[in-house]
Design brief:
The protein has 407 residues and is α+β, with helices and mostly antiparallel strands. The chain is built from 12 helices and 9 strands. Strand 7 and strand 8 form a beta hairpin. The protein is globular, with a radius of gyration of 22 Å. The chain starts with a helix and ends with a helix. Belongs to the CDC123 family. This is Cell division cycle protein 123.
Length: 407
């Protein structure tokens, strides 16, 4: 994969040209302090100059930014289904008002705050109707949905955006490994400044360990792509994020709760020719899809010929689309060919071979037993282990301590 091919797939690069064919999006440049926070580094390294010399060598704890708006992340929405998130945010532990909420990290010396960015993100979410899906230049934090109360990437405020981004291995990969994985990448000697101000335009990280499986998000648009297993492995083998002046952006995309996962497709382009299409969610069988695919294929081909191919300069890439019930096609995302992009119902070897042929192949799961297992985002491995010292063991002990404190 060449660097220029990867850079063309950044959402702030392609969205202005395809805006009317995509979903509403607000793009915000991210300041260097917030990038350091996402990378698990001190957001403001000079703020603690008097700390002991070896402090930087210790891994930082998982801290959410201080919230100036008072809107805490992910209030529980399923009170009748007890789970760790709803228990820790319930009246049983924390009282009934925001003033009663006990925040053990409130006075932590390393807890950062980003008031200007918080205002910009909250305003953008309001502009998009009150809920948005976040992503960085390439990837969305769909591997971190276990952190949310409803198991999706839906965010309604800055606190929720920060929690998902900080918890995501896909986001950590964007920061530390995406450009470095290109065969022609050379780290620049000089560094251009990151964004100092916050402006909106349309146009690892110390978190709990994620499941190594990722895939469709059950009825919600799957923005961005990242093989979490490979990304996590590379993150341990490569250096973490280094501020070399490269600008990262946060894209907030309008949230549509009624989207149907069987209507989303990944399209593979080889040598500027559409060679294959796969259903975007290979982990499920949709009975209506085998028959409907014959109607969808010509619509996707026409969309590629009329919209994508004339305006997107790369020779090899993938793009994701959503086909509405009225037949209109919406562009969701671009991804580079190969690398960390998932081939879904194909293999990259098959796709390389199909690039030499003349026929477009359209693949969907044809029967219940033919799904590809293990591609669905689940929960961290820590939450599957109930042994001494496991995540659940630590959680239950902390819950008991908090209950004793309240009583």
């Amino acid at each position: 994969m060449l660097l220029e091919e990867l850079l063309r797939c950044q959402i702030h690069e392609w969205y202005p040209a395809f805006r009317r064919h995509s979903i509403p999006t607000v793009i915000i440049p991210l300041p260097a302090a917030f990038l350091r926070y996402l990378a698990g580094q001190r957001a403001y390294p000079n703020a603690d100059a008097d700390a002991e010399d070896g402090a930087d060598e210790e891994p930082l704890p998982f801290l959410l930014p201080a919230i100036t708006s008072g809107r805490q992340p992910f209030a529980p929405i399923h009170a009748h289904h007890p789970d760790p998130d709803s228990l820790l945010n319930s009246d049983l532990f924390f009282g009934s008002s925001s003033e009663d909420v006990f925040d053990p990290d409130a006075d932590h010396p390393l807890r950062p705050e980003f008031p200007e960015l918080e205002v910009a993100i909250d305003a953008a979410i309001a502009e998009l109707g009150g809920a948005a899906l976040p992503k960085l230049n390439w990837s969305a934090p769909k591997d971190a949905t276990f952190m949310s109360a409803d198991g999706t990437s839906r965010c309604t405020c800055f606190a929720e955006v920060a929690m998902l981004l900080r918890s995501s291995d896909c986001v950590a990969h964007d920061l530390a490994s995406a450009r470095q994985s290109c065969k022609d990448f050379v780290r620049p000697e000089g560094a251009r400044p990151n964004a100092d101000g916050i402006r909106g335009c349309e146009g690892t990280n110390g978190a709990p360990s994620n499941s190594s499986k990722t895939g469709a998000e059950g009825g919600k648009t799957n923005d961005g792509d990242c093989d979490v297993e490979d990304a996590t492995e590379e993150e341990h083998n490569e250096n973490t994020w280094v501020d070399d002046g490269f600008q990262y952006y946060l894209a907030l995309r309008k949230w549509y709760p009624g989207l149907r996962p069987e209507s989303e497709f990944r399209c593979f382009v080889r040598e500027q020719k559409l060679v294959a299409v796969s259903q975007r969610d290979p982990s499920a069988y949709y009975p209506s899809l085998p028959g409907w695919s014959s109607e969808v294929q010509p619509k996707i081909e026409a969309f590629f010929n009329e919209v994508i191919e004339p305006q997107f300069a790369s020779n090899n890439y993938t793009f994701d689309v959503y086909v509405r019930t009225d037949g209109r096609v919406k562009l969701i995302d671009f991804n580079p060919w190969g690398g960390y992009t998932l081939p879904l119902l194909f293999t990259w070897e098959e796709l390389e071979e199909k690039g030499r042929g003349s026929e477009l192949e359209f693949r969907v799961v044809m029967q219940q037993g033919a799904v590809r297992p293990g591609l669905m985002t689940a929960v961290p491995y820590d939450m599957l282990d109930w042994g001494e010292g496991s995540g659940w063991d630590v959680f239950l002990k902390k819950a008991d301590e908090e209950l004793d404190r309240q009583i």
